[in-house]
């Protein structure tokens, strides 16, 4: 059967389903969650409210705005066997592997696991949103030989994460900035990790199985792993005197400048300006003004080099500025991608529910692309099975 080919497109610009969750206009630099511009949410909302919006297609009313965060607080504690298990794992384990291995462990404790109703999926989503944050913080403590900290139920989702991670109560401004960073990362249409989640649950696998796949996709350096690579780059060039020269050399050597370019945005990422403003605020507060200065110098030099090469659509993406922001908040480089998961779990969950319940108008029952076979063929009859002695 002849197949329509979209090979070498990486599915860019190929629509595979309808969605009511989010929209990116890559030419105009617009990002919308459930009808609301990201600017509107970054300036007025909280992570809890944004997660509710993504899951329920409406902002919470006065009652729901109290109930939803209370449900998250209720679900914050990790099951004892998960904590005991984490304590036996190699301390140097890559944190994204720890998350990817632990999400199925959390599935085992979910009383709704085998109930695939919409209501049960919402309950699972709430548990996993709360526990993703608890897990990342607990692993960071455990790998340092410390006991995980009990949650502080007076703190917001963002504030409590920083407390459980660092063992220091964040000042309200830092907690608010982190909350905004979580809002900014909460969803982003059919990006690779979200598509991985949707693909997996289209087989009718459960929410945790979908999220496990999403975590794996997020870990790669071309996707969520880019923020960790940006921080690595900043630390590497901290002592570099000639930033324009360094950037030129990187590009001439065929290297990418991490944190720049995007598969959909061909202009400035609308999330970047909030992170840049945070960077400046945090730099003043912490006295670490080198990171924003350095990233700005790299950005300007890279833009100039891209311009010379006729690649004027490559701009700084969200990871470029989130890395120095997280660094100044005391988040180590290898936890920056896990922090992305702490936020994106809201979007993944909303997409999983949309996929399962067909909320959008058009989508396939199951994703199952074709491929063109270009391997051995041996003619019409196929290859002859060779006894072991006759194989080269
Ligand atoms: C994200 C990314 C994969 C999007 O890629 P894309 O739009 O599909 O574009 P391509 O990777 O095909 O790149 C198109 C061209 O621009 C170049 N380019 C894109 N981003 C670049 C970067 N950050 N540094 C250097 N060159 C870059 C590519 O090398 C390619 O050049 P070529 O046509 O000469 O081969 C890409 O920009 C990238 O690798 N960025 C760095 C990683 C990153 O920050 N990821 C986080 C994304 S939120």
**H/I helix tally:** 16
Query: What do we call the CATH homologous superfamily of the largest domain?
Result: Citrate Synthase, domain 1
Strand content: under 5%
Q: How many separate domains?
A: 2
> How many strands, what sense, and barrel or not for the largest sheet?
3 strands, antiparallel
Radius of gyration: 22 Å
- Specify the structural class: mainly alpha
Uncertain spans: none
Concise account of the structure shown:
Helices cover 53% and strands 3% of the residues.
Folded structure, characterized:
The chain has 392 residues and is mainly α. It folds into two domains: 22-225 and 334-357, Citrate Synthase, domain 1; 227-327, Orthogonal Bundle (Cytochrome p450-Terp, domain 2), CATH 1.10.230.10. 53% of the residues lie in helices and 3% in strands. It contains 16 helices and three strands. It has helices spanning 38-44, 47-56, 64-74, 80-86, 95-107, 118-143, 157-166, 172-185, 192-201, 207-218, 226-237, 243-252, 272-286, 290-308, 318-328, 336-357; strands at residues 22-25, 30-33, 36-37. Helix 6 (118-143) runs antiparallel to helix 16 and helix 8 runs antiparallel to helix 13 (272-286). The longest helix has 26 residues, at 118-143. It is globular. The chain starts with 21 loop residues before the first strand and ends in a 35-residue tail after the last helix. The mean pLDDT is 95. It binds coenzyme A.
